Amino acid sequence: MTARAAGSRGSGADAPGDDPWAPPPEDEAVAVPDADVEQVARTILLDQLTGRARSRQELATKLASRDVPEEVAHRLLDRFEEVGLVDDAAFARSWVEGRRSAKGLARRALAQELRRKGVDDEVAREALAEVEPDDETETARVLVRKKLRSMSGLEAPVATRRLVGMLARKGYAPGTAYSVVREELAARGDDVDELDDAGEAD
Known about the structure:
The protein is an all-alpha fold and 202 residues long.
């Protein structure tokens, strides 16, 4: 065998991987992009979870908006659940406590918000069960008292409509709202009998 022939065979010109312009093997072509996407997705999740808890559905929606493949998102969210970084039950409890404290929302409004966040109805019910009816009534009373400070010039029927409407928007049942408003107006010295008369006239 000549040196040229030996050199030609020894150079391995036909050996796989020696040609810098040849495409990588199929497993490498898939593995590297997937690894990159997964790292990007993990960073997105950690950024989203910085500051406050989020529901799994919120995080899935965020990943989808960043074009993370569904299978990658599902796999990562499962891992985050396994280590406790994603926990819809804990999220629901935190959401209920925070929204009641900040906005005075009743259970009905809170249930709607949790549903929009993608929290399972049963998980939401467990979180809402921690809110005692008496606590909810007291929260409504605090809201009415605060609002009444800016309604000193309004007659009782007008004030009632506005206050009951405010409580309704926050998820309070009509009976609870009207009862609380009537009691607080009476405590302020308003003639609440005219409210009953107006109701009978309607």
